[in-house]
Amino acid sequence: MLKQDYMQVSQDQPIYSEAPLQLLLFVDGRPKSRQQVQRIRSYLRELETEYSFELQIIDVGQQPYLAEHFKLVATPALIKIHPEPQQTLAGSNIITQLKNWWPRWQVAVDAFLKLQEDLQELKDENVRATLPTSTIHSVAVSAELIKLSDEIFNLKQEKEKLQEQLQFKDRVMAMLAHDLRNPLTAAAIAIETLQNNYNSEKGAFYRLKPAMAEHLLKQARNQTRIIDRMIADLLQVGRGNDKEFNIIPQKVELGKLSYEVLEELRDRYISKAQKIETDIPKDLPYVYADPERIRQVLVNLLDNAIKYTPEGGMISLAGLHRTTQKVQFSIGDTGPGIPPENRDRIFENHFRLQRDEATDGYGIGLALCQRIIRAHYGQIWVDANPHGGAWFHFTLPVYPS
């Protein structure tokens, strides 16, 4: 019996066949393979007039697990599944191969039928005997098992991912509680000092010099910005699976923005006696970027540079007009540097170097930087500093004149 329609071979609707010769024809939806499939089916119709067999036509797009079961690498493909041994004909010359193998398949079927008769006689004489089976139904069962195995594997992967996310959340919450304490304390002290020395009747500070009052106000502002940045970073990375990363680009003077960030972090690098070296050309063109997002990048990169550069070390900032369309900005340090084998992975979410496991941080700053720069159609990378340490570089588009 030659089936003319596409069949769904499944365990839910098992197909039992007693035909001695059973074939599967795997096809796909490609237009260029339709003519070949039509020729194969037409030739099989001619063969069926002389010899009875069972044919099932399977669309690999609808049942990929069957294609996996038979380890197919190309379609169309014609597979003899019964009698054993199984045989696959594939390629552009299936009909030619079929002409060669068809007489041999007939011999194999005749031998199988003769063996079946002999075994039936033995069975009648109360002798136990079993025939090897390789039917369309057993193929469907195997395909279902493959499908279930894949689903179990995917579930295990999802479970491991969820466990990792929960562990990361617990770790971040613990570190956030610890890290927020310092800027909160510093901001609170600055505000309390200002409040205790403020004379509301005169509208002035009576025991603080104007310069000190200004310093305390700046300190409180900087510390609250640090707190805001820490929380914003976590929220942004929490949405790390979003396909879109919204930015509002505008005309930005990158050199001026970098100096503003340096001023915000001034107390940090001064406390470590670190030197700041800048090489930002005055004629560096404006960039087309979201100033708040790029501020996040600069703060993260400079914060890392300060953290990993030893006391008395050097931190460098440099701008370069690479092309008429791109500006490159670089931040260097004289810290331990990034091993070559980790220079790509360093931008992965949650990734931290083994040496940094005991260092405060979440392993999200550089991942966030990469997302921001890519949203601007730029690039970010790291290489070695010739004087020791690391050089982080990123590019941004030039503002159109």
Mean pLDDT value: 78
Percentage of residues in strands:
15-25%
Low-confidence stretches: 1-16
Considering DSSP H and I runs of 4 or more, what fraction of the residues is helical? 40-55%
Radius of gyration: 36 Å
User: What are the secondary-structure elements, in order, as H or E?
Assistant: EEHEHEEHHEEHEHHEEHEEHEE
> What is the straight-line distance between the termini?
75 Å
With strands numbered from the N-terminus, the spatial order across the biggest sheet is 1-3-2-4-5
Structural class: alpha+beta
Shape: elongated
Number of helices: 9
Instruction: Report the count of strand segments.
Output: 14
Largest sheet: 5 strands, mixed
What does the model show?
It is elongated, with a radius of gyration of 36 Å. It is built from nine helices and 14 strands. The protein is of the alpha+beta class. It has a five-stranded mixed beta sheet with strand order 1-3-2-4-5. The protein has a five-stranded mixed beta sheet with strand order 9-11-12-14-13. Strands 6-7 form a two-stranded antiparallel ribbon. Helix 6 crosses helix 8 (291-308). The chain has helices at residues 31-48, 64-69, 94-124, 136-196, 210-238, 254-264, 266-271, 291-308, 365-375; strands at residues 2-6, 22-27, 54-59, 77-82, 87-90, 198-199, 204-205, 250-252, 275-279, 287-289, 314-320, 326-332, 380-384, 390-397.
